[in-house]
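pls ignore typos typing on phone
FE2/S2 (inorganic) cluster + seq
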Amino acid sequence: MTAATNISRTTDFVDDYHSLFVCKTCASMWQDGKRLGESGGQKLLQQLQHLAQDWDLRNKFLIEEVECMSACNRSCVVAFAAKGKLTYLFGDLAAEDSASAVLECARKYYAHQDGLLPWSERPELLKKGILAKIPSISVEKVSTTVI
Ligand code: FES
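k done
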């Protein structure tokens, strides 16, 4: 395999790379500045990681834990992001039984070229809790605007 082939494969991977961010701090109980037990976000993260072991998109989506996505009063919170796609932030997810719906929604996000997740196509649990829909960065605009 040549270096050029390696670079091409790496570029393909990055272009197809998707992230599912999960806030592990959501739904925490605090006492004297210390977290008591496991947070709701940690429970959701563990369930997602467990379900994803048998998920056919496990090599396409990286499940990434994050400390906070600034939607703390809407826990639990997850986000979908990928190059050239909309970024979505969802909240109000129950810690115990949302993981299947999150992965189902991730599948739809992956399937749409621009990541669009119309209300009618989203799983029931993710129909109400949408907190943000952020446009993708347009490479064409950047290259014509930045001199
Ligand atoms: S604690 Fe989860 S978004 Fe801030």
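The pocket of FE2/S2 (inorganic) cluster is lined by residues 23, 25-26, 41, 68-72, 75, 77 (CB under 6 Å). The chain has one domain: 3-145. more later
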